[in-house]
What we know:
By secondary structure, the chain is α/β, with parallel strands linked by helices. Helices cover about 35% and strands about 30% of the residues. The radius of gyration is 16 Å and the shape is globular. The termini are far apart.
Amino acid sequence: MDKPFSQACENNKEPILNVLKHHFDNASLVLEIGSGTGQHAVCFSQNLHHLTWQTSDLLENHQGIYRQIADCEQSNLRPPLELNVDNTPWPLTEFDGVFSANTAHIMSWQSVASMFQGIGQYLKSEGVFCLYGPFNYQGNFTSESNARFNDSLQQRAKHMSIRNFEAINQLARKNSMKLIEDNPMPANNRLLVWKKHHTQQHI
């Protein structure tokens, strides 16, 4: 059976990997939220031998991920967990890295908030969350192609939309994460990087 394939994943995997190499250098277990075709998981696990890459997605996407990783021989790539960010507890509740690509504009805004809440709850202190995708800045599209893409998302489903960076970053701050990098990526995308900081309980 043919493996699922995304040309966008082929185009962006190397630029993303160059950033992950730096930020996941001390990570031991990375959770990928929304593994999709599984192409990123294969590429990143093959190039980041020191860590374990845990795939996850909604159950209907698991078959494609299994087909993608079936021929992979590296031991640091795990088969997908069933993860719906709105359902708690998550199937994996301790990790020191998180990666997600092209999910924030597909999920509802409530689910985006649930994703950040879950990461804030389960990501280890000093752990890193890397989020790839298109984002608006100060409510403005960064390109005409992104504006057209947003129109196509709205035609698919009203809850889909390119998110505002400021609102996304506010969710991160609310869940104990501090932005440490905003990286330009191919096709008018960005790779946002946050670090989980220590939280202090007020008595």
